[in-house]
Amino acid sequence: MRVELIKHYTTEDVEAEIRRLADAHGSVESLAQKVSVMKCGSPKLQDELMLWRALAISHVEVRSSVAFEGSEKVANMTPARMDLLEVIRRTRPQSVRQLATSVKRNYKNVYDDVGALCDVGLVELVVQGRKSRPVCTADEIKLTLES
Amino acid sequence: MVQTASVNIQKIFVHRDEHIVGLEVSEGPRVKFYSYTYYVNVRDAWQPCVRWDNAEQQPHVDRYDENGTLIEQQHCREKSFKEVLKLVKIFRRNLAAMNLAEL
Predict the structure, then answer these.
(1) Would the CB atoms of A58 and B14 count as touching at under 8 Å?
(2) What φ, ψ does residue A49 adopt, rounded to 5°?
(3) Interface test with A, best of B2, B3, B9, B24 (most A CBs within 10 A)
(4) A136 sits in which H/E element
(5) Tell me, what's the ipTM?
(6) Among B7, B54, B90, which would you mutate to test the A interface (most chain A Cβ atoms within 10 Å of its Cβ)?
(7) What pLDDT digit, counting tens, does each position of B15-62 carry?
(8) What is the DSSP string of A62-75?
């Protein structure tokens, strides 16, 4: 069994990725220089260079996915957690407390469920000051039974 | 003419301590660049173990030591993500000691 979490990048996502690459490496040229010096010494840098060059193309579609082999991850996806995931995606809460209030559930239980969704990679907690904003990382979940 | 491209970034955990990261950049139906890197978790750090890619249109396979240092590069035929996933699932960490060009 394979569980696949899929995200299709929006224009904002592409811009955010380009900003992240620029913050990390300065410019495409400086990254290309680093990669040519290291040859194939750093797979991550080489991939980031190819990604950056592709993102610079005017019409680019980006699909990102994280998949897990085995059924162990599915066990964590309870109906309550999947409902929570939909609420996070739909309402974009500013904090876990706001999320708990909107679903009228106990804060600690919601916090635990958000933690479980983070473990699976479905949610990321973005720290903003003293608050942690839950953000949904996938817009599609695909479950494949292998034959 | 408008230039279009698609990027497919894939990460598959084949085990808790092993995953493959795939990057494919396509122009139309043609995959212009691919890289498939098999990472293993060594002392709480993800280190590349084997990587197949076609940088500069030269399909090749790279082998890394347990510190993530490149130790060998060999020419090999073009690979798809499906083929790499199959190889990794069969051989896993043993890939580090195999003749990769012949796979």
Answers:
(1) no
(2) -65, -45
(3) B9
(4) strand A131-136
(5) 0.88
(6) B7
(7) 878 999 999 999 888 899 999 999 998 888 899 999 999 988 889 999
(8) EEEEEEEESSTTGG
What is the residue-wise DSSP string for chain B? ---EEEEEEEEEEEETTEEEEEEEEEETTEEEEEEEEEEEEETTEEEEEEEEE-GGG--EEEEE-TTS-EEEEEE-----HHHHHHHHHHHGGGGGGS-GGG-
Reported as half-sphere exposure (CB side, CA atoms, 13 A), residue A52 has a value of: 22
Q: What is the pLDDT of residues A46-94, one digit of tens each?
A: 999 999 999 988 789 999 998 888 777 677 788 999 999 999 999 999 9
Report the residue from B3, B11, B48 with minimal CB separation from A43.
B48
* Chain A residues close to B25, C-beta within 8 Å: 50-51, 53-54
Which residue in the set B4, B21, B23 is minimally distant from A59, CB to CB?
Answer: B4
